[in-house]
């Protein structure tokens, strides 16, 4: 694999999907990429609910398009609901920090990993951080002690066009010493 | 780019580096990969101090090998110190959550992105979440309002061997509905 930067450039939020289901095998590969992500002390503070049944997909879409946000996720044909699990750190670190200190960063890495694998399989994704938590929790039978971290929409993109990314200029975010 | 899963498998924590400096151009590509990472409302809550001067590299290594943790980072020839910046969210989201709610996850994604680009350039990385913060802050002139998120060691790996990853079994972390 020589061109990771190329993949990083083509991964983008997909907001319009074809009416075409995502194959189970591809969903499994996507989760496998998240499973291999690095985490503090290899604590792997994550688990995933993959939503592929059309009726449930529609309900997750409804739960995610609230307050006028995320409206464009209505056409996604699958969702991955990412849950935060208890992180078990090695003793030396656990003496210094709360066990969940690094969990959010670890989950962020796992989510990016699954989006990149989706992209490399020709799929589009969109990460949503705002949703109707109680509704989603009830719908997917998620126990109260597990926090819902993110909901990732997945599907075949309607357009192949790669948009120019809007980012802060390189020189503004880096300093060499 | 067809084989992201292959890259995800080969990326691993590198704990022993060759005594060979990392080219500036490669360090720039690594930061570029982080710069392209996704973030909540495209808030990009990150900046980077790239440490490449040998004397400073040695001091960062010292600051990172505390409490018997991270001893193996002594041979790294560069470090990337990742800082948390203020996230500017769109108004709709800012009304719902504290501006930094998603920053840790976003930073985790940026860190994975830079590690993956390093891997694709033949470099090794190791992410360290424990370090002597006051010492690092003073050494790198980091203002008190910026939080140091992670320190990433970078260098040419001494060994090409890809270790088998130890992860929770697939079936334990995923549920299809």
Overview of the molecule:
Two copies of one chain form a homodimer. With 177 residues, chain A is α+β, with helices and mostly antiparallel strands. Chain A has one domain: NADH Oxidase (3-Layer(aba) Sandwich). Helices cover 36% and strands 17% of the residues of chain A. In chain A, helix 2 packs antiparallel against helix 5 and helix 3 runs antiparallel to helix 6. Chain A starts with a helix and ends with a strand. At the A-B interface, helix 1, helix 2, strand 1, helix 5 and helix 7 of A face helix 1, helix 2, strand 1, helix 5 and helix 7 of B.
Gist of the model:
Two copies of one chain form a homodimer. By secondary structure, chain A is of the alpha+beta class.
Strand order of the largest sheet of chain A: 1-2-4-3
Structural class of chain A: alpha+beta
Could you report the average pLDDT of chain A, rounded to the nearest whole number? Answer: 94
CATH architecture of chain A: 3-Layer(aba) Sandwich
N-to-C span of chain A: 30 Å
CATH class category label of chain A: Alpha Beta
SS element count, helices of chain A = 7
Counting copies of identical and different chains, the oligomeric state is homodimer
Classify the beta-strand content of chain A into a percent band: 15-25%
Q: Which residues of chain A sit in consecutive blocks of at least 5 with pLDDT less than 50?
A: none
Q: Provide the helix percentage of chain A.
A: 25-40%
């Amino acid at each position: 694999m020589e061109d990771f930067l190329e993949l990083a450039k083509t991964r983008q939020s997909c907001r319009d999907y074809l009416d075409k289901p995502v194959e189970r095998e591809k969903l499994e590969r996507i989760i496998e990429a998240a499973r291999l992500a690095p985490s503090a002390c290899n604590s792997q503070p994550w688990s995933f609910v993959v939503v592929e049944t059309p009726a449930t997909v529609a309900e997750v879409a409804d739960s995610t398009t609230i307050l006028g946000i995320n409206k464009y996720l209505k056409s996604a044909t699958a969702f991955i609901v990412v849950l935060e699990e208890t992180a078990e750190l090695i003793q030396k670190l656990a003496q210094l920090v709360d066990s969940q200190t690094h969990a959010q960063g670890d989950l962020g890495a796992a989510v990016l990993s699954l989006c990149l694998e989706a992209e490399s399989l020709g799929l589009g994704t969109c990460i949503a951080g705002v949703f109707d938590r109680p509704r989603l929790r009830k719908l997917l039978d998620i126990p109260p002690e597990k926090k819902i971290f993110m909901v990732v929409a997945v599907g075949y993109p309607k357009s192949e066009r790669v948009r120019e990314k809007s980012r802060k200029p390189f020189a503004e975010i880096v300093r060499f010493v």
